[in-house]
Write a structure and sequence with these properties.
The complex is a heterodimer of chains A (about 70) and B (about 260). Chain A is an all-alpha fold and about 70 residues long. Chain A has one domain. Chain A is built from two helices and no strands. The longest helix of chain B has about 35 residues. Chain B starts with a strand and ends with a helix. Chain B has ten helices and nine strands. Helices cover about 50% and strands about 25% of the residues of chain B. The chains are: A mainly alpha (about 70), B alpha+beta (about 260).
Chain lengths: ~70, ~260
């Protein structure tokens, strides 16, 4: 974990979609972009997708591990 | 019409040429006030307010966009001293607006970058096995089996509910201790909402969905601690994810500055 080479960018990075969405939808700095969904909207999107994504990420991981 | 999706701000660093968004416009840099924003041009037909609202409900679109965003953020965070990811799909109406943002919030971004430098986000998910955590049935429950079937059912049911509540309480307490232990090894720790197990087919409960900002010098120590804690208690298993760009901590850093 000391060498940056250990980190793969792009498609080689095996991360579960649901873990990624936990971070990119709820994390990151919110600045006043000209086109911005209200945070509450994004949270609603996030909530409505969570269950679906959990199953999707399980499938995805299964495929990646196959 | 050309639009910009601002992805992050970072100190001047040799990132030019390393970034390309799969399928979309290549990412490029916009500089102002000693900061660099990495942006890519997007189409208003896709990223305007109404299309964006609709697209965020489209799992395929969201998945592709999130992965493209992450690929760029991850690449930049790895090659730059530090990077501050912005929320997914932050759209500005031109390069000049991005320069204004960088200039207006130069101090905040600079402090955030300073605090994030040399640190990496790691994810730790904890799963509890309800069966392993449930208390073994008490002898009184066995005796109840000899009573009338209705009474026996009620007693059995009550014992099951009580065992489940007890297991949930045990798991929650243990997750709290795990989070505290992991936070102690980190610069900061944060818990995300647990992911819903209902459709995943997994019986295990997610009791911990944590993110931890860890000094790179302590990354090995942190991973070893996760491994140790994983074996500490039967019935609770841990999964380490990452390295992540500091998605879960960029907001925290700026909020602190705004107080």
């Amino acid at each position: 974990m000391t060498e940056p080479e250990a980190v793969q960018a792009g498609p080689e990075r095996r991360i579960a979609l649901v873990d990624l969405l936990d971070r990119v939808l709820a994390g990151g700095v919110v600045v006043s972009g000209e086109i911005t969904l209200a945070i509450a909207d994004v949270d609603l999107v996030h909530l409505s997708l969570r269950a679906l994504l959990t199953s999707a990420s399980t499938l995805e991981r299964g495929v990646a591990d196959a | 019409m050309g639009l910009l999706s601002l992805i992050l701000g970072l100190p001047l660093a040799p990132v030019r040429g390393v970034i390309a968004l799969g399928g979309g416009e290549p990412a490029r840099t916009v500089e102002a006030a000693g900061l660099v924003a990495v942006v890519s041009t997007v189409d208003l037909a896709e990223y305007g307010e109404q299309p964006l609202r609709r697209n965020l409900e489209d799992l395929d679109w969201l998945a592709a966009t999130a992965r493209a965003h992450d690929a760029v953020v991850h690449t930049v965070a790895r090659s730059a001293t530090a990077a501050v990811p912005l929320r997914l799909a932050t759209v500005y109406l031109g390069d000049e607006r991005v320069r204004v943002l960088l200039a207006d919030r130069r101090t905040e971004f600079a402090v955030a970058l300073d605090r994030l430098a040399g640190r990496t986000e790691w994810g730790v998910k904890g799963y509890a096995d309800p069966d392993a955590l449930a208390a073994p049935p008490r002898s009184g429950d066995e005796a109840a089996a000899g009573r009338g079937s209705g009474t026996a059912y009620l007693l059995r049911r009550r014992a099951q509910l009580s065992a489940r509540e007890s297991a949930e309480r045990t798991a929650a307490e243990h997750a709290g201790r795990l989070h505290a232990a992991l936070t102690d090894l980190s610069v900061a720790g944060r818990r995300h909402a647990p992911q819903d197990p209902n459709l995943s087919g997994q019986r295990a409960w997610m009791v911990l969905n944590g993110s931890y900002l860890v000094d790179d010098a302590r990354a090995d120590e942190f991973a070893a601690a996760v491994s140790d804690l994983d074996g500490e208690r039967s019935g609770v298993s841990l999964e380490l994810t990452g390295p992540w760009p500091p998605y879960s901590f960029s907001t925290t850093v700026l909020e602190v500055l705004e107080e």
